[in-house]
Design a protein that fits this description.
- A hairpin with an 8-residue loop joins strand 6 and strand 7.
- The protein has helices at 3-22, 27-44, 53-59, 134-147, 214-226; strands spanning 74-79, 82-87, 109-111, 125-126, 153-157, 161-167, 176-184, 189-196, 198-202, 229-230.
- 29% of the residues are buried.
- By secondary structure, it is an alpha+beta fold.
- It is 30% helix and 22% strand.
- It has 5 helices and 10 strands.
- Strands 3, 4, 5, 6, 7, 8 and 10 form a 7-stranded antiparallel beta sheet that branches. Strands 1-2-9 form a 3-stranded antiparallel beta sheet.
Amino acid sequence: MNKVTLVALCYCLISAESFQIQQSSSSIKNRREILQKIAAATLFFPANALAEPSAQAQSIPTNQAATSAGRWGCKTDTNPSRTVVTCTEETRKFNADGRLSSVSATANGVSTSAVRNPSRFSPPWSYLTETSDSKVAWNSLVKAVSAVDGGVEIVELTDEYLHAVVPTEFPAGLTSDDIEFILRPEDNIVLYRSVSRTSVFVYPLTQPVSDKNSNLKRLEKIRDKLGWGLMGQAQTGSERI
């Protein structure tokens, strides 16, 4: 039975019983019976029986939903206690301007492009503390990224762009984090972005369950290994649960 049929059933039930009430002197008793029957209908047709989780996920306009606001290429899976949003179209190749994406308030991570979201912004790195040769700096970065985590995989690498994926650390059991770097040799800096593809929302929270700053800590581990400078105030990370 679908949702439309259930609504029609309840409407017919109410209409029929209302007619009986008008014809009966014991109206209070009849009203009580109406409420009992409607409650029974609700029990036998719970919300999750109206749609399978996968179908329910497909019906959600993820580009408009609050849990995926500001994100792209998302799939949402939801039930009464939690919502899981996974977005896979936020890396540079999906941006016509060739820049790194920002980080939405509905995602975990940091980016040098998140200038309008201070809690997700982190300043560029300067490699001049190591070398003035951009090629040397880039080779050092590639080596540092490759060694930062046992599960890291570099999926795209050019002379000025690096995209790697690594299993999400927190919350455990999710998909991957996307790590991106862009070399700007004319400014002697490197831009970057590290964001978890999947966000988990637990009712009634309106912010995603925290990654415990794992994206930020991974980036800082890379920068510390390189000994590079930070072109601004360091991001301190989130204190969300």
